[in-house]
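Case 235 in the screening queue. Each case pairs one protein sequence with one candidate compound; here the compound is 6-O-phosphono-beta-D-fructofuranose. For every case the pipeline is the same: read the inputs, emit a complex structure as tokens, and attach any notable structural observations.

Predict complex for case 235.
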Amino acid sequence: PRVIYITRHGESTDNISGRIGGDASLSENGLEYAAALTKFINKHQAEFQKNCLESNINNFSSQMFNSEVNIQNCSDVIDMKLLGERFEIWTSMLKRTVQSAKYFDNSNIKVKKFSVLNELYSGLCEGMTYKEIPKYYPNESLERSKDKLFTRYPGTNGESYVDVVHRLQHIIVELERLHNSVLIITHRAISRTLISYFMDISIEKMPHLNIPLEYVFACVPKAHGNDLFVYKYDR
Ligand code: F6P
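Case 235 output:
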């Protein structure tokens, strides 16, 4: 069985200044997370594959996975060649996700970029802080605080969560068909949407899920649905 790993990019310079949207690069912390991610995936996949071969599929997850495992503790031994055959990485087209995959560059793992994995587009509010938005767009801001699911950001192509659900439909079909395991490095709103789909979380709750930076969410299939395992990078 394949694992779908979902994570946000490492910390960006816009995350530090509290600006939404944009196309900022990773900070030092962000680059550190990117490096930790390669170790984590390598170790996790090695144990996962080994365990699938050795044990009954019904009980492998309880044996092998401990939620909230510390990513930092993963071994330094990286055998990306073995992983490459059965593993893919998908990023958005934005720098912060592409840079978060950069330490996989010297492996034979395919990295695919998809614009549909870009962050929810905040229209005229791109580059603003959450404090600035209500000053410039009080009505939209109030509307969004009441109905985050349906409210679009102002300006051409400004999106709502429902818009994001629609644009992710094709990629979800692709994911359902995929036999390989995949690491999806994306953004907060996109992670919320994908995790809600795989974990059957209601659309009303979805825009409010807590998806911090430096967490990996692993969706592992079971008979009906998926198990979710959560891993945190401890600095
Ligand atoms: O702050 C990071 C970010 O990814 C923004 O770019 C984006 O607009 C936001 O999170 C999505 O979260 P929310 O819909 O809760 O503002």
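Case 235 observations:
- Residues 20-21, 119-120, 122, 187-189 surround 6-O-phosphono-beta-D-fructofuranose (CB under 6 Å).
- DSSP finds nine helices and seven strands in the chain.
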